[in-house]
Amino acid sequence: MKYNIPRGTFDILPQDSYKWQFVMDSFRKIASRFGYEEISTPIFETAELFERSSGESSDVVQKEMYRFTDRKERIFALRPEGTAPVVRSYVENHMDVLSSRTKLYYIGPMFRYDRPQAGRYRQFYQYGIEFIGSDNPYYDAEVIAIEMLWLQELGLKNLRLEINSVGCPTCAADYDAALREFFRPALQDLCPDCVKRFDLKPRRLLDCKVASCKPFRVGAPSQLDYLDAPCTEHFAKVCESLTAMDISYIINPAIVRGLDYYTNTAFEVIYEGLGAQNSLAGGGRYNGLIEQIGGKSIPAIGFAGGFERLLLALEKEQIELGKRICPDAYLICLGEKARVAIYTYLNHLRQKGLYIEYDPDKSSLKAQFKAADTSGASYAIIVGDSELEAKTVNLKNLVTGEQVSLPLDGGEAVYAILHQDH
Ligand code: HAM
Predict the structure, then answer these.
(1) Atom of ligand 1 nearest to the CA of 258
(2) How many CB atoms lie within 10 A of CB 361?
(3) Residue nearest to atom 11 of ligand 1 (CA)
(4) 54 CA to middle of ligand 1, Å?
(5) C-alpha–C-alpha distance, residues 79 and 46, integer Å
(6) What's the number of CA atoms in the CB half-sphere (13 Å) around residue 99?
(7) Domains of the chain and CATH, by start
(8) CA-based Rg of the chain, rounded to a whole angstrom?
(9) Measuring from atom 16 of ligand 1, which residue has the nearest CA?
(10) Which of 285, 309, 312 most suits a substitution to test ligand 1, by most atoms within 8 Å of the C-beta?
(11) How far apart are CA 318 and CA 148, in angstroms?
(12) What b-and-e string marks burial along 318-350, b requiring 16 or more CB atoms within 10 Å of the CB?
């Protein structure tokens, strides 16, 4: 019986894993530079957590959630996103008592039952940041700055930051009413999903992917015209802070975001070369979410991005992402006596922290040199019975061909040379 990987998922193979480690390490570094600490939550949570936070009308909840019932009939879901679990943990662990400002980041797999294509998978890896504890527009700009600075430091060029404000629940209600007025005459021509959205969440009509729905949104009212005075001021200050931080952006009133918890700032980072799935990262403010899932009324903002899309963009710009790890040296052993004696020496070298490859199943000099070459090692350490008698080893530089004789000691002589090369 042969088994295949589930559709929309992928293996991270050894020849690629160093790239993943590189971007993940790099994200951990930038997050730490801004004072964020890592949090890991389970990959499944009660389904209700996502239904309440992402919104019953969202595609994520309606169509994309992997929902399952456990042996005690409890309903869980594989997490489709990281914000709700982080907020659940924040509330459950009383993090607000520990500090008035909480800075958390996470890395991990998320799951959405979506139609797979380049840049869209059913299991994908997100990186994300959540800042909890202040409504100050400075933090909106700082959170955006983390993502932009990181992507620029990685070397990405064709980036576009798009921002919008979706307002607070009061101005959002006025805007929804205006949208209903606008779309009502076209109701019978919209797709069935849009008809549902019309009642539940009319702003989702602006985001529908069905081609026949698109013409009907031309001339739709803009969210920005329906913001109340505090929301208008908040948005102006976010824009002002971004400009002061030298971060370019465009205001796009059509940014809706697929999840329901957003208030005020919403943003997306677009990388043009990625076709339909060109949103590298997205996020925004969610001032009502903590209270909605059982905590106090505490404002927050965050974002998340997909590692798959990031890697595709980096590949497109031919940006090198570290290297596959090669051995420091390959140990070549000739003769039966040397073979047993060499284990202690090999052990000493490894205890010094060196990565030494050795294969006891290869006995000829030729086979061992060939293996040394394919391993990518820069050096070969050669020990035969005659070296053993003379208590020496030969260290050959596989790049220059140079060879030196060194004492067969506790590994110090070889270590001194290999360590210099590190
Ligand atoms: P999101 O926009 O749903 O936001 O996802 C964020 C990013 O995850 C996207 O920009 C994309 O790079 C990646 N992504 C989403 N779905 C897929 C998929 N099926 N395959 C590959 N990559 C995907 C959120 O998840 C929010 N929790 C972000 C946030 C954090 N808002 C506030 N804090």
Answers:
(1) 3
(2) 6
(3) 306
(4) 12
(5) 9
(6) 8
(7) 14-168+228-316 (3.30.930.10), 329-421 (3.40.50.800)
(8) 28
(9) 120
(10) 309
(11) 19
(12) eeebeeeeebbbbbbbbbeebbebbeebbebbe
Residues 6+ apart with CB under 8 A from 409: none
DSSP reduced 3-state for 117? strand
Q: How many CA atoms lie within 13 A of 358 on its CB side?
A: 21
Q: How far is the CA of 337 from the centre of ligand 1 (A)?
A: 60
CA of 69 to the centre of ligand 1 (A): 25
pTM: 0.93
What single DSSP character describes residue 320?
-
N-terminal to C-terminal alpha carbon distance within the chain: 46
pLDDT per residue as tens digits for the range 314-338? 999 999 998 889 999 999 999 888 8
* Rounded Cα gap, residues 251 and 307, in angstroms: 25
Residues 201-258: pLDDT tens digits? 898 888 888 899 999 999 999 999 999 999 999 999 999 999 999 999 999 998 988 8
**Residue 291 burial (CB count, 10 A):** 12
Token pair for 22: 């590189």
Q: How far is the CA of 376 from the centre of ligand 1 (A)?
A: 38
